[in-house]
């Protein structure tokens, strides 16, 4: 099957009925999706309350999450769901990028890597974010210092290279441009997706021009694209082989978002080859499909 690919969906099932999620994925299959990248979030031994703090405030509210919900191990539920899905007849391929935001940089990752994954997800939130993410510093969950947190981030890049898989790495380039630039220089051989256009089209354009191994996705940007469609269309056309479809959907709420983002992209009036690249071709190269 050759179709659309969404490279940015969070698992975070946290007690929701998996049968409902399955029905939503089957609908994506009917809508023409070829593959989706799903990000399971292991707590890595953290308490349910600390795991709750790993989830952005908007999603906590959207899913009415409590620490009772986050007592359900996200990686366990994902493994069970994916095994069942893979054993059934489906054209939609589910790819697993393990989300290592709870990692302290010290724990042996073999327990969570067991069975393998198609990629790795990392996120850099070094300070309290009361506006965009609405969450405390990420380092509070593993209980490490700011210095150790940045060291864990460096180790995450190293681990990704060792596993030879693509990396989805959330970073606000307006806050941590120097840090990510250092990592991109050190790991120019990695395929790296910095989503949300790095939170700054101007700064991110410079990154794309200097680092040919970097791509991005449009997850969570729907309100901005709707408010300035011509500006985003211009940006996409400036980097037609570097932008991918992503929705930031989360399973504890709904996996209907990819189809909404699909229709949003189709409304931009992009050239046919650019639209096809964004909706699937670029992701196919990034994922090695």
Short description:
With 289 residues, the chain is α/β, with parallel strands linked by helices. It has a single domain, classed as Metal-dependent hydrolases (TIM Barrel, Alpha-Beta Barrel).
Give the low-confidence spans: none
How many angstroms separate the termini?
11 Å
Rg over alpha carbons: 18 Å
- Name of the CATH first level: Alpha Beta
| Overall morphology | globular
What is the makeup of the main sheet? 9 strands, parallel
How does CATH name the architecture?
Alpha-Beta Barrel
Q: Provide the spatial order of strands within the biggest beta sheet.
A: 8-7-6-5-4-3-2-1-9
The number of domains is: 1
Overall description:
- The chain is α/β, with parallel strands linked by helices and 289 residues long.
- Helices cover 43% and strands 14% of the residues.
- The chain has a nine-stranded parallel sheet with strand order 8-7-6-5-4-3-2-1-9, with helices on both faces.
- The chain is globular.
Observed structural traits:
9 strands, TIM Barrel, 289 residues, nine-stranded parallel sheet, 43% helix, 14% strand, alpha/beta
């Amino acid at each position: 099957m050759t179709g659309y690919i969404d490279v940015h969906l969070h698992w975070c099932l946290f007690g929701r009925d998996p049968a409902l999620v399955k029905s939503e994925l089957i609908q994506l299959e009917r809508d023409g999706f070829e593959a989706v990248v799903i990000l399971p979030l292991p707590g890595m031994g953290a308490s349910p309350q600390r795991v709750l703090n790993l989830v952005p405030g908007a999603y906590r509210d959207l899913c009415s999450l409590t620490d009772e919900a986050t007592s359900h191990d996200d990686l366990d539920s994902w493994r069970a769901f994916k095994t069942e899905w893979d054993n059934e007849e489906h054209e939609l391929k589910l790819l697993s990028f393990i989300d290592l935001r709870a990692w302290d940089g010290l724990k042996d990752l073999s327990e969570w890597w067991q069975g393998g994954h198609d990629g790795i997800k990392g996120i850099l939130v070094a300070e309290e974010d009361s506006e965009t993410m609405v969450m405390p510093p990420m380092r509070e969950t593993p209980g490490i210092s700011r210095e150790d947190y940045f060291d864990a981030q460096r180790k995450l890049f190293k681990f990704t290279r060792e596993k030879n898989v693509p990396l989805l790495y959330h970073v606000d380039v307006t806050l941590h441009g120097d840090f990510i630039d250092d990592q991109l220089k050190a790991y120019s051989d990695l395929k790296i997706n910095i989503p949300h256009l790095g939170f700054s089209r101007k700064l991110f354009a410079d990154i794309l021009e200097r680092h040919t191994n970097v791509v991005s996705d449009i997850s969570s940007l729907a309100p901005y694209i709707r408010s300035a469609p011509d500006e985003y269309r211009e940006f996409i056309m400036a980097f037609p082989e570097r932008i991918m479809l992503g929705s930031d959907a989360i399973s504890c709420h709904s996996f209907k978002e990819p189809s909404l983002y699909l229709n949003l992209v189709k409304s931009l009036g992009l050239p046919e080859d650019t639209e096809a690249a964004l909706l699937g071709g670029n992701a196919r190269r990034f994922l090695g499909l």
